[in-house]
Amino acid sequence: MDGVALIVSQVLNGLQLGSIYALVALGYTMVYGIILLLNFAHGDIIMAGAYILWIVLAQLGLNPVVAMLLAVAGCTLLGVVIDKVAYAPLRNAPRLSVLITAIGVSYFLENGAQLIFGADAKVVPSFAPVSSIQVGGLSLSFVALITVLVTALSTVVLTFLVQKTKLGKAMRAVSEDMGAARLMGVNVNNTITFTFAVGSALAGIGAVLYVMAYPQATPTMGMMLGTKAFVAAVLGGIGSIPGAVVGAMLVGFSEVFVSAIGLSVWRDAVVFLLLIIVLIVRPTGIFGRTMSEKV
Amino acid sequence: MSALLSVRDLHVSYGAIKAVRGISFDINEGEIVTLIGANGAGKSTTLNTVAGLIRPESGTVEFDGSSVVGVPAHKVVARGMALCPEGRRVFTQMSVAENLEMGGYTRSDAENKETLEKVYAHFPRLKERRGQVAGTLSGGEQQMLAMGRALMSKPRLLMLDEPSMGLAPILVQEIFDIVKQLNDAGTTILLVEQNANMALSIADRAYVLEIGTIKKSGTGAELLVDDDVRKAYLGG
User: Quick check: is B136 in a domain?
Assistant: First the structure.
């Protein structure tokens, strides 16, 4: 029984970690898919979400539901503002300029947070309603279960949005050929901003779930999280939505597995090793297709 | 009679390169007008400027009596002009039906439903392949899709940029027959072509472009027998 319980809880851990990476990786992959930008500031949106939770819960002492909604809304708004202020003026600039700007935005957010909140970790009061639930004699982490559920639901909603709605179709059209999309009557700029909003909302959901599991906020917390999610997106094939989820699960499970066999100091190394292997064997990632340069 | 599209003294540059150097032309409702000329004469630049993808340096473009200079491309469509771009540029990863849906982006769902039936009537092959991903269509089918997609916005003026490019002769004939049909059904057409012979044979009027200026104009029939035009563009 102990063996079973161990396996079940480790699988759940893998799913939980993979889910959080997936929520962040989806934003990476969507923005890359539409404007070929690796938005290095994306991970820092999680950090902003964590600080919003801290402010609302620890400083203002408001209801957790309010805190969660404000965190997601705040992240969405931040993503839109970043796009409008930093990236939109560079729509016709070379890709490298936008990439460097993204790195700049990332530093700006991290150092801005440090300036405002200080470098030490802020502890966010626990806001999960219960810690575990019993299923058939097994005690399962509530936070892990809710994380997996919310991520699955978010992925389904996102897939529906992209595949079936008018805006989603416009996003796909813009991602394939901006000029042609414009000729159809699509406002390309707004479509790109909308993509940032959706990606950032998912990061906001990721922030809530992450802080539920690891209840603190630090200025640089988005860095490693963002990097891992970036690895996940590349593993799955950057630009691909199912790829981001599969890649994230691979990263999450690798980390949990490496820790479970007692090699937890190697967990980050294993993730990057995985990336190196995939880049050598299949440079476009698992679901990636070879893209021809746009003219 | 006032023209549906009226272009006056249009200048367009790409950086230091002057692509269009002061051209003027008119298109009346119901006509097929063609711009012919060699590669680099400024034909596509003219279309792209009219469609709002490029801002002209100077000059005016009036559609149905109001200026469209400075109006972004995505708003030009709603005014009743559609450009079927060079190289077709269908959305290769979307289905045929989705491509057509994108064409009707500025229209209501109810309108699109009706227009879709008309487009399928012009292009029965698209109906057969509506679920297929556009990238798997043949070149001729992709051209039909690009034209059908442009028609979904119910344009009063349809601009076609090199519709025959890269197609087998039998398909070229088919595409031109469809252009003629569309015109008979009431759509005004501005056609840019390197296949001057075909273009002139269906055009009411034509303009010959050479390095950014209009060298000659006349009816399609006149230019077909014009010595200079024959020598330069018709291989004889």
Answer: yes
